[in-house]
Amino acid sequence: MISRLALYFFITIIFSLNFELYSCACARAEYEMENGECCPMCAPGNRVYRHCTEDTSTTCVPCLDSTFIDAPNGLRDCFHCTVCDPGQGLRVNIACTRSSNTVCEPLDGHYCIDQHRGGCIVAQKHIKCRPGQYVKHKGTAFKDTECAECSDGTFSNGSLQICQPHSKCEDLGLTEIKPGTLSSDAECGNKIPAGLIAGIIVPLVVTIAVAVIILFLKIKRKTVWHASNNPYFPFKKCCMPSLLYFTCNLNILLKCGFRPCISISCCSRNCIRGICKHCFT
């Protein structure tokens, strides 16, 4: 009997406490002030300008530009809109309003590594596959690029989505100049045999040499230069080659100051030897 009375007493106390707490709590659309009084909340996009009194309701005002509140509230200040920083790999997806924050998304070539409320806070660049690798899975706004190695006999510069097989020069009727690697294709070309190169160059060199020798012999055996009608070249004929004869006479003219030098004989014994310096003796 005593235990039943004790249990009844305990239940009564708990019920009274819950009733008291419930009676002191504000309604769902109200907020509690410091003095414990409840006031109606402001709608999203607005903030409290003046708390309610016994005679007046809460005075609300809209949030200023670049600020917002996205829920019913009893706040004095609005929140600052999030800035999508390109330095963090972000751009604006949905612009900020008085009742909603900015929603950011990754820039092209980036993927999000930290999300919040459907938006991205921080993004990072997609990795670039190295030469010798191909793009197995292309990067998205929320996933990085996935690379894989090329197999033997194929190549990729790192940007391909599938490795390409090396060119087969023999099938193209060409000679392989440089073998392919994992990062580059084989190089093909028309390779000229060394024997063919020698067969072309050697006869050409011999022909040029023979032509030079023949030309030299013709100049050497050429008839001496005649200058019988020129008073500055008084020697009708000389015993030396024409080229040397002309040089000898030119030296005579320079020595004589371009005056006739009738008394000087270029067909002296020394000149017969072809030594021009003796033309002045």
TrEMBL record:
- Answer whether the UniProt record assigns the keyword Transmembrane to this protein: yes
GO BP term, example = immune response
Annotated membrane topology: Single-pass type I membrane protein
Q: Which UniProt keywords apply?
A: Disulfide bond, Glycoprotein, Host-virus interaction, Membrane, Phosphoprotein, Receptor, Repeat, Signal, Transmembrane, Transmembrane helix
Query: Which interval of the chain is the signal sequence?
Result: 1-16
Q: Which Gene3D superfamilies match?
A: Tumor Necrosis Factor Receptor, subunit A, domain 2 (2.10.50.10)
Q: Which cysteines form disulfides?
A: 39-52, 42-60, 63-78
Q: Where is the TNFR-Cys domain?
A: 25-60, 62-104
Where do the TNFR-Cys repeats lie? 25-60, 62-104
Q: What is its main location?
A: membrane
Q: Which GO terms describe its molecular function?
A: transmembrane signaling receptor activity
Give the Pfam families listed for this entry.
TNFR_c6
Cellular component GO terms, alphabetical: external side of plasma membrane
Q: Where in the cell is it found?
A: Membrane
- The highest taxon in the source lineage is Eukaryota
Annotated membrane-spanning segments are 192-217
User: Sorted alphabetically, which PANTHER family does this protein's record hold?
Assistant: TUMOR NECROSIS FACTOR RECEPTOR SUPERFAMILY MEMBER 14
The protein depicted here goes by the name TNFR-Cys domain-containing protein
Organism (species): Pygocentrus nattereri (Red-bellied piranha)
User: What lineage is this protein's organism placed in?
Assistant: Eukaryota, Metazoa, Chordata, Craniata, Vertebrata
